[in-house]
Amino acid sequence: MHVFHVALLNIMNNAGVGTPSGPCDWLNVEDYKSMLAVNLNGVIDVTLSVLQLIKKAKGRVVNVASVFGRISPFGGPYCVSKYGVEAFNDSLRLNVAPFGVKVLCIEPGFFKTSMSDTAVLKSNMKKLWDRLPQETKDDYGPAFLDIMLEQMDERSRQFTDGDLMKVVSCMEHAISALHPRYRYSPGWDAKFFWLPLSYMPSCLVDRFFLRYTPHPKVSVL
């Protein structure tokens, strides 16, 4: 689903597809294409279709990306698509600044939405596992899927924020404030965990993620 809002010659892009997501070698190129078509290409398509009007009106473009456009703690096309939105947002901001157009980016953390529904995410993970060739299943081992599903429940309890008004407030400020911020990061996890982690050296970030994610053929972490 791609949702956008145009009012007073401002545009807000909010594309929301979170599955299929899983380890990169559980996926195929069609999985990437289907998500990129919505999360990235949809944002670009809608923006370019009205950009000339936005320029004439000196309006605003607000793109909803994700904190996972800044750091990639899991495999699959979601982070790829959100990194793409970030790149499009940054280049567009510079391109249209001389026309008086403001381009803003919202980078939410984990919030309680249909995209973060663990039942949906776990169902997706099971479907990906079921279609894997036996050789790949053997690489990971029989316990890997169960451990991953358990950790998804745990991560949801740790990070998911139920107050969507934090995101809505950022959207409102980006659209209406006289001096909007270039980037908004709603959610305590985005501000105090994911974004600080994204500035750390890659070797430390990798070590952290590898410590707290299941390993192939390892049943006890």
Automatic annotation (TrEMBL):
Matching InterPro entries: NAD(P)-bd_dom_sf, Sc_DH/Rdtase_CS, SDR_fam
Source superkingdom: Eukaryota
SUPFAM superfamilies tied to this protein: NAD(P)-binding Rossmann-fold domains (SSF51735)
GO molecular function, one term: oxidoreductase activity
Keywords from the named record: Oxidoreductase
A Pfam family per the record: adh_short
Name assigned to this protein: Dehydrogenase/reductase (SDR family) member 9
Stored Gene3D superfamilies: NAD(P)-binding Rossmann-like Domain
Protein family per UniProt: Belongs to the short-chain dehydrogenases/reductases (SDR) family.
UniProt gene name: DHRS9
PROSITE patterns for this protein: ADH_SHORT
Originating organism: Nothobranchius furzeri (Turquoise killifish)
GO biological process: steroid metabolic process
